[in-house]
C-alpha cells in the first residue's frame, strides 16, 4: 500500500533539524574547548544527522508533488537520490574522523573529561528524544526510518563519548578519546555503506529485498487458467511502492473475457499477498504450456546476436 506523508511528518523533520543544528554548534565549541576529538567527531556525526534530516524533509515535500510531464512516476525516487547523497557524505565524514583519530594517537593532547561527559550526556538525551519522535513515521516510511536510524546511531555514538570521558576523568588515559573516535568513524562508515547499498538497489531497479521474483512467479502460476509467466520484473519506485510487470501465457482457446478475469485475479492476489498495487500484466495465448529456458523468465538477451528476441511463448496481437 502506498504511504502518504502529511504535514505532521514534515514538521517533525524541520523541528528535529533545528534542534540538531543548534546542538551541533554547541558540541563543536565544547569539543574544541575540552580538546576532545571524540566530541568534535560526535558533532560531525550530528552534522551528518542534520543533513539527513534536512534531506528527508525535502524528500517528503518533493514526493507529495503529483506526476506531470516527463515525470511519469512523479517524484517518488527523490528519496533514493537524497539517500545516495547522504550516504556519500557519511563516508567522507567517517574518513575525516578516522584520520583525525590516527593523528591524535601520534600527538595526544590534554583533555577535560568533565566537559566531555556532560556534553555527551546531553547529546544522548537529544538524539534519543528525536529518534523516538520519528519512530511513528518510520514504521511506514523508508525515508523517516533512515533519519530515525541516524539519530539512534548518534545517541549510541554519544554514549561512547561518555564512556571515553569517564575513562579520561578517572584514569587519565587520553587515548580513550582517539579509540572512541575510531569506533564512531567505523560506525558512521558502516551506516553509510548500508544506506548507499540500499539506494543503489533502488536506482538499479533491483527487486525489493522482501519480494522474491521466483515466489511471485510461482504464485501467479498457481492461479487457474495460467499456463506460465515470463518477462517478469519487479522494482521499487518510491517509499512503499513496488511495481511489477510480466507476460502471462494462457492456454489456446482462452477467451478475451476469461483472460481479463484472470488478470484481475492475478492483480488482486499480488495486492493481497505482496502489497503490489501497480501491476502491468500482458496476456499471451499459446498452444503449448512450456518455456524455452531460464533466460526467458527475465527475457535476458540471447547469446547469439543474430537470434531474434524470444520469450518462449508466441505473441499474438
Summarize the structure.
The chain has 317 residues and is mainly alpha-helical. It has two domains: 7-203, Cation efflux protein transmembrane domain (Alpha-lytic protease prodomain-like), CATH 1.20.1510.10; 213-298, Alpha-Beta Plaits, CATH 3.30.70.1350.
Annotation keywords:
three-stranded mixed beta sheet, zinc transport, CDF/SLC30A, 9 helices, disordered N terminus, Alpha-lytic protease prodomain-like, 3 strands, transmembrane helix, Cation_efflux_CTD_sf, 317 residues, Alpha-Beta Plaits, mainly alpha, elongated, disordered C terminus, Cation_efflux_TM
- As a percent range, the share of helical residues equals 55-70%
**CATH arch. level architecture of the largest domain:** Up-down Bundle
Low-confidence stretches: 1-8, 287-295, 304-317
- Main-sheet strand order equals 1-2-3
Report the average pLDDT across residues.
78
* Domains, number: 2
Structural class: mainly alpha
The secondary-structure element order is HHHHHHHEEHEH
CATH class of the largest domain: Mainly Alpha
Count of DSSP E strands? 3
Portion of residues in beta strands equals 5-15%
- The best one-word shape is elongated
Main β-sheet: number of strands, strand sense, barrel status?
3 strands, mixed
CATH topology of the largest domain: Alpha-lytic protease prodomain-like
Q: What is the multimeric organization of the chains shown?
A: single chain
CATH superfamily of the largest domain: Cation efflux protein transmembrane domain
Distance between the termini: 33 Å
Pfam family, one: ZT_dimer
Membrane topology: Multi-pass membrane protein
Family: Belongs to the cation diffusion facilitator (CDF) transporter (TC 2.A.4) family. SLC30A subfamily.
Protein name: Cation transporter
